[in-house]
Amino acid sequence: MIKGLSHLAFQIFTLFSIVTIVFFLFSNSFPDPSSTLIGQNTDKKTQQAIIEELGLNKPLRHQYIDYLIDLSPISFQKEIPKKAYVLRNFGHKSLLLKYPNLRRSFQSREWVIDLLWDGFKNTGILALSAILLASILGIFFGVLSGLYPHLTFSKVVVVLSMFGISAPSFFVAIIFSWLFGYVLEEQTHLSMVGSLYETDLSGEKILQLKNLLLPTLVLGIRPLSIITQLMRNSIIDEKDQQYIVFARSKGLSQKSIIKKHLLPNAINPVLTSISGWFASLLAGAFFVEYVFNWRGLGLITIDALEKSDLPVLMGSILVTATIFIFINAFLQVIYRKIDPRISQ
To answer: Of 86, 105, 270, 290, which has the most beta carbons under 10 Å away?
Structure first.
């Protein structure tokens, strides 16, 4: 119990540290967003009104405190936002229980939580597609190359997986986009860039599943290579163990030995790797999304960085960090189930 509470406190402190560092780092380095909102022909009075509306006229430390108050699910303030529960009144101020407020975008004035939710769904679809592709093909290639390591096929798989592990995702994304979306466009019917939904001339959103193919392939190359290597090494380690030799001596068929004995024992380290890679893909597809113009968390974050949109940038980084923390906590539970020694 105490260990769990200390772990939770550490994760909260991690989020607090990320918020603090990012806020002061980018608040000092970003240009004034009011200048990009008003254009060049607007008077100073209008610009000052925008600055006051965004809260940028306050000292930086006050802006930081206001942001923490908006972000905190428990706050002590005068104004009572919608969907907030008043825990107790203290004169002019109240102790509130509320949803964390990520504010509005400086540029579009949309709620940041709505922008990030749309991006999270697109990133989730992309990450899930990539990890499914990598898992199915990686386990298949790993089992075959592990059972028959001396075949030419197995040697080719090893070489290709080494290239896949070392190839930078950004470079591979550019090559795939250019080759399959431009050079071979007539054969593949694929586009160099595109998101899951495209808007037509009438403003209606149209589902474009073909745009999912290239970013899925690029994002899945590295986990596919690692899963293949892990599965292959695990099969090689397990296939000469005594329980496998004993199963052969009992006259069991090769298919039965693989299905009932070899694969269940060899796949455990691979499953932990798959779950860890899914967390990485879910929160780290920035470059791939940028190259293919895939409207996910990565592209939204980069756009916010280019447009000096601090609320969107803060929200995106905070959501990404929270995803990592929750998935890592979930993986710790899975690891303890697989190997109880971890909790000791």
So the answer is: 270
What is the C-alpha separation between 263 and 270, in angstroms, rounded? 11
pLDDT tens per residue across span 118-169? 888 999 999 999 999 999 999 999 999 988 888 898 899 999 999 998 888 8
Q: Cβ-count burial of 127 within 10 angstroms (0-12 exposed, 13-18 middle, 19+ buried)?
A: buried
Task: Provide the 8-state DSSP code for 262.
Answer: I
Q: Looking up tokens 């998935």, which residue turns up?
A: 327
Reading the block at residue 256, the tokens are 């039965």
Provide the terminal-to-terminal Cα distance of the chain, rounded to the nearest Å: 14
* CA distance linking residue 329 with residue 334, whole number of Å: 9
List the one residue out of 288, 121, 295 whose CA is nearest residue 195: 295
Q: Alpha-carbon distance 248 to 67, whole Å?
A: 66
Tally Cβ neighbours within 10 Å of residue 309: 26
Q: What is the pLDDT of residues 102-119, one digit of tens each?
A: 888 888 888 899 999 988
E strand residue ranges, the chain: 74-77, 85-90, 93-97, 197-199, 205-207
CB-based burial label for 143 (10 Å; 0-12, 13-18, 19+)? buried
**Distance from C-alpha of 98 to C-alpha of 330, rounded to nearest angstrom:** 26
Nearest to 67 by CA among 31, 30, 104: 104
Task: Give the number of residues written for the chain.
Answer: 344
In the chain, what is the greatest distance between 2 CA atoms, to the nearest angstrom? Answer: 89
Contacts of 19-24 with CB under 8 Å at 24 or more apart are: 19/67, 19/68, 19/71, 19/314, 19/318, 20/64, 22/313, 22/314, 22/317, 23/64, 23/67, 23/310, 23/314, 24/60, 24/64
List 89's β-bridge partners, or say none: 94
CA dist 211 → 177, 203, 214, 236 (Å): 11, 19, 7, 38
Query: 10 Å Cβ neighbour count for 44?
Result: 8
pLDDT in tens, 279-306: 778 766 888 999 999 999 888 988 888 8
